[in-house]
Amino acid sequence: MKSSNNRGLSGDDLLIGEIVGVHGLDGVVKIRSYADAPTFFEAGRSIRRVDADGRVHACTVVWAKSHGKGMLLSIEGVNDRDAAEVLIGSHLWVDKASLPDLEDGDYYWFELIGMSVYTAEDAYLGTLASILPTGSNDVYVVRNGDEEILLPALASVVQAIDTDQRRMTVILPEGL
Questions:
Q1: Which H helix or E strand runs over 82?
Q2: For residue 161, with 0-12 CB atoms within 10 Å meaning exposed, 13-18 middle and 19 or more buried, which class applies?
Q3: What span, in angstroms and rounded, lies between the C-alpha atoms of 13 and 46?
Q4: Helices within 90-167 (DSSP H only)
């Protein structure tokens, strides 16, 4: 692993997880993933680990797999439990430009969160605050002050997404 005292992160970096523990004796770490897809942790992917002191360390993913509510991650050069324990509390980052292109109509969550949400009649509903994954479709949590609306992420509800204008247009389902 290479390290730097420079923070080395910019607005083009995306926080994808946090190291929360160790697993076994071979240097495997437990992570809390903030990523919306396992592709963020593909073998060979370059990531950056930022420790509690703000130092940035370039890392390469050896392998990753789901484990309970989190994931297990093997990082190149971390080969024993002692080396892994030092990493607890570190945050994992990736360069947005390194992410695979998505098909038209598909978006990464970071592209959607923070968007202004309007009805088809141009009434402001609020800001897309978070996304809840469910078995069948995601649910968008839209907040406007103390009010919260849960919208299913379905083509019948989401009419348009403009990433340049940071705007989403929706048709509210009956009952909302």
A1: helix 81-85
A2: middle
A3: 12
A4: 109-112
Q: What is the pLDDT along the chain (176 residues), one digit of tens a residue?
A: 333 333 455 668 888 999 999 999 999 999 998 886 777 899 999 999 999 888 999 999 999 998 888 899 999 999 999 999 999 999 999 988 887 788 888 888 888 999 999 999 999 999 999 988 887 888 999 999 999 999 999 999 999 999 999 999 999 988 76
Residue 56: Cβ within 10 Å count:
19
Instruction: State the alpha helices, DSSP H only, in 19-80.
Output: none
Q: What are phi and psi of 51, to 5 degrees?
A: -85, 180
Q: How many Å is the Cα radius of gyration of the chain? A: 19
pTM here?
A: 0.67
Side-chain half-sphere CA neighbours of 85 within 13 A:
5
Q: What's the order of all strands across the beta sheet hosting 167-170?
A: 147-152, 139-144, 124-132, 116-119, 167-170, 158-162
What pairing do the DSSP bridges indicate for beta strands 28-33 and 13-23? antiparallel
